[in-house]
Amino acid sequence: MYAVIETGGKQYRVEVGTELEVEHLDVEPGAAITLDRVLLVANGAEAAIGRPIVADALVSAEVLRQDRGEKLIVFKYRPKARSRVKKGHRQELTVLRITDVRLGDRSAAEDARKADAEAQSERARLQEAAARQAATDAELAAKLAASKAASTSGDTSEAAPRGRSRRAAKPDDGSTASGSTSGRATRSSAGAVTPAAKASTKTQAPAKAPAKTTAKPTAKASGASAPKTTGGEAGKAPGRDAAPGAGRGSTKSTGTPPTRKDS
């Protein structure tokens, strides 16, 4: 709810809690005054307009202090008369705080107090609900922690006997090695090779391959190839019975001596 009041020849829009500066009023600070010139009172969609003032409308205010406004400079100048006048002015003001706006039986201050009380009660209710929820959460967390601790202790107590039983059932290294060896020796299936067959194949040595010839024939006969000679035979000197040119590292199978072409 708000109202429009008139004081000191000026109009002001006010509501509960508004502080305003008005023209000087001859009252003491801390006094309570009533402003009866109310031009309009509105509450939501409802409004009461005065002609010129609203009947049964009243605005209450509290005087906070007497004050003075900002300094104003007044300079008066008259040309061709050598007249110069300079003056300063500070307006006397009264600071008011609106405490209540009334229209008939309805009071804006009472409505504000009720709204504040409801807000405080709602705030207190929310705080209580939050405290209850926090207590419930803490209790649930404590229960979960206790159950987790119990399950952890049970798991550790069961894991110790299992480890001891596994260590007791584990065989010696020698027995394990012999067992694995015997298992590999007796394993045989369709298409698998037994240890005896492997031993027999190892004893049979493969035949040696003939030595490869290192020398290549130097000349080729028409229609026939020259026999390959080893490095040992090629290095030997030709004997008495050898044909001429046989010691050169190559022989011809045709039996005819090479002919020399005269240039």
Structure commentary:
The chain has four helices and nine strands; from the N terminus they run βββββββββαααα. The longest helix is centred in the middle third of the chain and has 62 residues, at 108-169. Helix content is 34%, strand content 29%. Among the domains are: 2-104, no CATH class; 108-152. 7% of the residues are buried. With 263 residues, it is α+β, with helices and mostly antiparallel strands. Strands 3, 4, 7, 8 and 9 form a five-stranded antiparallel beta sheet that branches. Strands 2-1-5-6 form a four-stranded antiparallel beta sheet, with no helix packed on it.
Short description:
The protein is an alpha+beta fold and 263 residues long.
Count of beta strands: 9
Low-confidence stretches: 175-183, 185-192, 217-227, 229-239, 249-253
Compute the number of helices: 4
Q: Terminal Cα separation, in Å?
A: 143 Å
Helix content: 25-40%
Oligomer: single chain
**Beta-strand residue percentage:** 25-35%
- What are the secondary-structure elements, in order, as H or E? EEEEEEEEEHHHH
Q: Pairing-aware structural class of the strands and helices?
A: alpha+beta
How would a crystallographer describe the biggest sheet? 5 strands, antiparallel
Rg, Cα atoms, Å = 64 Å
